[in-house]
Amino acid sequence: MQRYESYKPTTIEWASKIPADWRVQPIRALFKERKEKNKGPKTDFILSVMKDIGIIPYDEKGNIGNKKSENIENYKVVYPGDLVVNKMNAIIGSLGISRFHGALSQVYFVLYPKDLSRTNHKYLGYLFKVRPFQQSLIKISKGMMELRESIEFDEFKKLVLPVPPRDEQDRIVAFLDQKTAEIDAAIMKKERLIELLNEQRSIQTNRAVTLGLDRAAPLRNGESEWIESVPEHWEIVPLKHISTVQSGVTLGKNFVLSKSTKSYPYLRVANVQDGYINLSTVTEIILPIREAKNYLLRAGNILVTEGGDIDKLGRGNCWDGQIEECLHQNHVFAVRILKRVRPEFVALITGVSYARRYFTTTANKTTNLASTNKTKLGNLPVLVPPLSEQDAILDFCNKSKTKYAKIIDSVAKEISALKDMKSSLIAEAVAGRIRV
């Protein structure tokens, strides 16, 4: 990449030198605040700002972040080309130039370019994606936690930016539009590859767990609305016939406290993820020792989630006793297998297609939420191959998981490298370190 002929120093931390013919201007010289309220309302098209993505329709963000207010007349109106800044999350990338006309909540600043004849709003949009710029916002923020600090608007307006001549802005935008589109296309292909790899592994696991490894084995009717066919020498039994299901401790319950109390680690739904136990954050609870005995986990327990969002419904993973004297909350069931089936095999069953369909169909549902209970969990149909087959299936699935995880990790690293390349390219171009 070429560089500019000469540079001059600036007071900008993340762009200490810029091309000699570029200007340095404060945000207030480039933008005005838009204070238009959504009275009427003027629009019911609600927007949101996502980290590292920018402004998107609210309906596309999924079940993330704050919920939409029922009264949208106090929302701020946004037009294409407006700069939108989430004053609570701009530090982590929740800001950008809008492509939409809509409205969003009062937690956002909305600004519009003063003079589009001198500034290309897409150039400014790229500029606000620069990570060092976002990190510089920490100095004008107030709050207790880094990710929830609030930007002071008066200080935000004073921040200075590198501003090239308009024709140079246009060249930078054209260059970045092309290059970032190429990188995004490469990222999408690799993300799709990961989806296909996960689908392929899921198909292999599903077939192994429900039909076994011997493709020549004769099948019989599953005699169940959940299971179409099964190897004829396998059995199907309700989970309750081969296990006990233990409920967890209810937070907020009034226990009779005594001198014999103790602080215990306990697992929540967030700890029981799809395919693994996440112990990065484990909460503690103080309970009477006598009471805590009712909720202690034992190695070999299968942890099954009660629900919440649909993806949290009926997730099952084996507990290996990683933490001593660990409890579980009431939204996580602890299943103890008594006979005939490996706990790890039952944990695999909770993730295959017929079990997912069982949990989803029998769940108690409200808007966007679903939950199961102890009775329904106990009625889950469990496939029971001979123990030797269970061991062979577990070995096959573990090897398959390791093989696919290695490939997926390699592709994920390639995606990360492409994202770093994209971020670096944007930063280099908008700061004038390369000439396009």
Would you mind describing this structure in some detail?
This protein is α+β, with helices and mostly antiparallel strands and 436 residues long. The protein has 3 domains: 1-7 and 164-212 and 386-436, Helix Hairpins (Orthogonal Bundle); 23-163, Adenine-n6-DNA-methyltransferase TaqI, Chain A, domain 2, CATH 3.90.220.20; 234-384, Adenine-n6-DNA-methyltransferase TaqI, Chain A, domain 2 (Alpha-Beta Complex), CATH 3.90.220. 31% of the residues lie in helices and 24% in strands. It is built from 10 helices and 30 strands. The protein starts with 6 loop residues before the first strand and ends in a 6-residue tail after the last helix.
Short description:
The protein is of the alpha+beta class and 436 residues long. 31% of the residues lie in helices and 24% in strands.
Features:
single chain, 436 residues, alpha+beta, Helix Hairpins, Adenine-n6-DNA-methyltransferase TaqI, Chain A, domain 2, 3 domains, 4-stranded antiparallel sheet, 30 strands, 31% helix, 24% strand, elongated
Q: Record the strand order, biggest sheet.
A: 4-11-8-9
Number of helices in the DSSP assignment? 10
Quaternary state of this entry equals single chain
Largest sheet: 4 strands, antiparallel
CATH class of the largest domain: Alpha Beta
Structural domain tally? 3
Spatial gap, N to C terminus: 8 Å
Number of strands: 30
What form results from the Cα inertia axes?
elongated
Percentage of residues assigned to helices: 25-40%
Low-confidence stretches: none
Rg is 28 Å
Structural class: alpha+beta
Strand content: 15-25%
Mean pLDDT: 91
Q: Can you tell me the CATH superfamily of the largest domain?
A: DNA methylase specificity domains
**What's the CATH topology label of the largest domain?**
Adenine-n6-DNA-methyltransferase TaqI, Chain A, domain 2
Question: What's the CATH architecture name of the largest domain?
Answer: Alpha-Beta Complex
